[in-house]
């Protein structure tokens, strides 16, 4: 059974930094691309960033580019999202999601989410 | 960026009703669309991928259709556990975008 478990969320001041982690199990982690998707309170889903299975290719939402770094450690089956210069509008639940097979960008498994609150 | 719109934004329906939700992409995405179900406080769940393929374990009362710019999610006979918010997504090109959601409520 695929399991994704996010951690690292919390309360951070504007301008601060945070690193989110997503521990994966139940599948061959390095064979699948992964994404981060966020959801502000009471709002819809917003794709944030993606990384290929090898980690060689990374992609970011334009609105967040420059403030995010996605990475992965396939030896540890863990996905990361480093966030800097955080703003109030970054407050959201952040989900990691596994890409469907075949190099497509459908998200077939999701973690439970970790909440990031940016506030002074 | 490809914009995804959904209609209606909400629908009130009864158990046993047939419910149809539509999604439109701002440009053609062939069949690179998906549908997700999300219940309050929970992560989204993939229902339909590639416009019409049913994800493993998803009940057959859910179906998807469409290609190009127009897509449809149909629930053939609404069950109590289906009351949730439904999102479409395009997987054709970066940035991957979601529709604003359709909330299916109890009538």
Question: What is this entry, summarized?
Answer:
The complex is a heterodimer of chains A (120) and B (107). With 120 residues, chain A is mainly beta. Chain A has no helices and eleven strands.
Question: Count of helices of chain B?
Answer: 0
Which chains have the largest interface?
A-B, 22 and 24 residues
Beta-strand content bin of chain A: over 45%
Average residue-wise pLDDT of chain B: 97
Q: Tell me, what's the shape of chain B?
A: globular
In whole angstroms, how far apart are the ends of chain B? 36 Å
Radius of gyration of chain B: 13 Å
What is the count of β-strands of chain A?
Answer: 11
Number of helices of chain A: 0
- The average pLDDT of chain A is 96
Describe the biggest sheet of chain A? Answer: 7 strands, mixed
Poorly predicted spans of chain A: none
Structural class call of chain B reads: mainly beta
Question: What is the strand and helix layout of this fold?
Answer:
The complex is a heterodimer of chains A (120) and B (107).
Chain A: E1 3-7, E2 10-12, E3 18-25, E4 34-39, E5 45-51, E6 58-60, E7 68-73, E8 78-83, E9 92-99, E10 107-110, E11 114-118
Parallel strand pairs in A: 2-11
Antiparallel strand pairs in A: 1-3, 3-8, 4-5, 4-9, 5-6, 7-8, 9-10, 9-11
Chain B: E1 4-7, E2 10-13, E3 19-25, E4 33-38, E5 45-49, E6 53-54, E7 62-67, E8 70-75, E9 85-90, E10 97-98, E11 102-106
Parallel strand pairs in B: 2-11
Antiparallel strand pairs in B: 1-3, 3-8, 4-5, 4-9, 5-6, 7-8, 9-10, 9-11
